[in-house]
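Researcher: Please translate sequence to structure tokens.
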Amino acid sequence: MPNNTTDSALTRGLTGAVAEAAAEPVRLHADHDALKRLGNWTTADRFEVRARRGSVVLDLRSPQLPAGELVVDLDLERAMVKLLVPDGTVVEYEDVAWTGSGKVKDGVGRQYARTGEYPEDGRRVRLTGRIHNGEVRVARGGVAILAAMFSREYVEDVKRAHREGTVPTVDDPTRTA
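Model: Translation complete:
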């Protein structure tokens, strides 16, 4: 017969551990390397990206990510970060310290800024940290789908989906398997 007080304390302890783990940022490091995190790969709302002469692709289109603001802390040196985001996402990068050349390439974001009409229910991604001779590319919609499809992870996901009789989710994380 289970002890209800012990079970509830254990449940509270696990819930606290999960909440503490969720508060911990996801750390990604690419040194002369290419790193990709695609599909439904995390539920965190904070990311720390360190890259030196490499590239990092972050898929932030998953419905498992928390609603509201996601924070990406960057430390880039001659590196590139590509963010795959859903349509309607606002990317803010005023808190980035720039040295050398580089920029944020976000065509749709410039349109939002020019018209002053930001989506109300869209997700917000706030970039912080420092970038030395690097860049951030933002891909949305079909471009984000193509960026995910041209990867080894997508090929492996298609093979897995075929074996299991399900559908691939790397290209579109909102699709349920």
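Researcher: Any highlights?
Model: The chain has four helices and ten strands.
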